[in-house]
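Hi, here's the filled form for the chain we discussed.

Project: internal
Contact: R.S.
Residues: 413
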Amino acid sequence: MNIEQVDVREIARRFGTPVYAYSLAALRRSIDEIKPLAPVVRYAMKACSNIRVLKEMLAQGVLIDAVSVFEVERALRAGFHPDAICFTSDVFFNADDVAFCLERGIFCNLGTLGMVEEYGRALERAPGGSPAISIRINPGEGHGHSKKTNTGGPYSKHGIWYQNLDEVKALARKYGLTISGVHMHIGSGGDMEHLKRITGKLVDFAMQFDDLKTINFGGGLPYQYDPAKAEEDISGYRSILEERTKRLEAHFNRRIVCEIEPGRRFVAGAGYLIGEVRSLNHTFDEAGRRLDYVLGNIGFCHLLRPMAYGSFHPIWFVGDDLGPEQDIIVAGPVCESGDVLTQKDEEPVARRLPKPKPGDLIVVGGAGAYGFAMSSNYNSQPLIPEVVVDGDTLVQTRRRQTLDDILREETES
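And the returned structure, exactly as it came back:
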């Protein structure tokens, strides 16, 4: 099995396992697919902040949506100009966040009434800063592939409730703020019909703000993880957004800038997680049926999505003389029973796969978004390397962490 022109066994040989690998060809294809959808396209860098991914976005003219000042700084260090970065802090500011953004000229998108007030107070202490802000609106509904990724509606902490917009305007007047942008993100995993309807709602809300210059429809573009199923065509989103923007421009009689900020659709298909089969095991269920487990060195400390959301990821085994296909549960080394790569509805399920043997490789696809970004040191596991494939070129962009790296920040009592 190759990633572009590089054999995954060569990646494993050179860098060990587990290891994340990203295909720049796949990333470029997704950029080419997404960029024509809107005049301004941002990358929600929380999905994958690998330096080579960020530099590819920079080279292709994609701007940045950051959700922490650390992401802002990371984008600045990757070469993005402050004007290319929007800081969307969803529910509150940490200490000094506003001062940081005002000093560096970072445009802020604010998701609660309290944040609007805090920004106004900080502006009073730094009168040279920009009074222009964007607000994130909760439109009263959401759409995520899991309840945990649904970021709209009454049970979401994200965004200013759509019935509280008069309060936002009052705060803006109080502190001399200009609401120049409105924004919405209702979750990852929606479909085109839902996006079509919900973008219309945001336009209705946006018409209430006389100083509007920008409307940001967020991300949430669908991505199909199962290669046996067709990927949803998103090209029609362009005409939807054009119609929405024309409505606003007719209302205000001036140009309105339309933005989107996908994350997952950009990078999910560009990433692979390569591990190794370490052991085989089996149990029997209550009916006496045998359950076969393939145990590898990929755990939820490396890829959290199956454990957190019951997410599907394609899996391939790479080795000589793989056995015939059978029902297999693929699991990891972490002590929780939920450390299983093959899940459905957050429950372990068997998948029809050729039987591997210890020493064969496990390749997990669709791992570019929220893969390495959500990994951890659980069980004192070191963070793993990241490599980038570009044609037949293989470059390491992150070395494997050591225990000394993990312990360096600890202090003795």
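Let me know if anything looks off before we file it.
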